[in-house]
Amino acid sequence: MYGNLVLRPEEIPNWGKKIEEEDPEKLAEFEARIARGEKIEPWDWMPFEYRRQLIRMIEQHAHSEIIGALPEGTWITRAPNFRRKLALMAKVQDEVGHAQLLYSAAETLGKSREAMINDLLSGKSKYSNIFNYPAKTWADTAIIAWLVDAGAIINQTTNSKGSYGPYVRALERICWEESFHLKYGYDSVVYLATGTPKQRAMLQDALNRWWRPIMHFFGPPDTQSVHTEKLVRWKVKLATNDEMRQQFLDMYVPKIWELGLTVPDPLLHKDPETGRWVYSDPNWEEFWQVINGNGPCNAERLAVRRFAEANGRWVREALKAPQARYVTPLA
Amino acid sequence: MASLDPRIRRAEPALWNVELPPLPPLDQWQTYEVFVVRTRGSHAQHVGSLHAPDPELALVLAKEQYARRSTCVALWVVPTEAIHRTAPNDEDLFQPATDKSYREPQGYLTTRERLEKYRHRLQSC
Questions:
Q1: Under 8 Å between Cβ of A167 and A156
Q2: CB A43 to CB B7 under 8 A?
Q3: Of residues A151, A159, A164, A162, the one with CA closest to residue A104
């Protein structure tokens, strides 16, 4: 009548099965549960394809938090004053904390943390493209904290309506913490925008350089994006890339213009008839180039991660409990 | 462009070109489930899990991961392995098999009605 919680790939009977090979009765029950708005928990039956897509998605999200801490982290030692330094440290700590929550959520699906870290370090797993660009000035950190975190909040709020319990719970907590990042970022941007001509110029320069990666942030246009009707039905994917991009433009372009800043896209405007934003092609070829390892900072980001791993490993070694036995976390 | 990361600029090149064999299983320690008591008098609530080598460090890490922002007056950690739960397909175990209204307050809604009827009968005699 009671079960322990051990969940390893070899103990999941339908591990590796194609969707056509799944038990149709169980699949129907699973889909009905999602249609009723119920959550799926780690101990519930789920098709392997659902498991695989969620592992991929949550793992990528976790890696993005870890790598995302790097461009901003480099500015902690050069923050302009003590309050900003404390705030930036808190933000970077949050990002790393979010990665911990997300790794735990992904683990409940049957991929161990060791396997995820191995895949990050070997370059097998991806992370958000935007972190492969350099943060050249202090204004870059302000633009990241405001606009990149704004994008992340839109993405995460959307996903928090999803069907997988542990991921949804982690996202709710993350969104709540991210709201400080957004306020802090906006405050930093407004401070520079209302400052000296040099500060304004630095801010505009940062926005010019980050605009294209921000447009890439939500992923390729719907016409190129490979997501299926199935993932929508399973509430893994809740909005299309273009829908989220439009939402972002709706919320933030007016705020950018309000500051007297310009967006480096002469075509950018909202079509009064369709109510949708029109913009120039943000060079999707560059997006694919960066994803495949050829961005300005891909090598450096992974090198820093490997450096931290190589030089921090002895700490874990020293504390290892030899009698420990691995089970996946509960929820 | 030269790197902006102070670690890249300061570290000895020898530290960069290290062999990095894949992490073996359990390298990230075992998992603990974390429970937070948000205010005095409230139940401890499960909030998630973490990796730690022992309960003492699990509490230290739990404070960073789960009590960094919202209120908290106490933390509990339990090795995941120590938790037993009812089997996933036993959810119906908790559904009443028969009418259980006799054990619920809603099962006693006609009391007043009965008394009113009785008093009415007395009056009409």
A1: no
A2: no
A3: A164
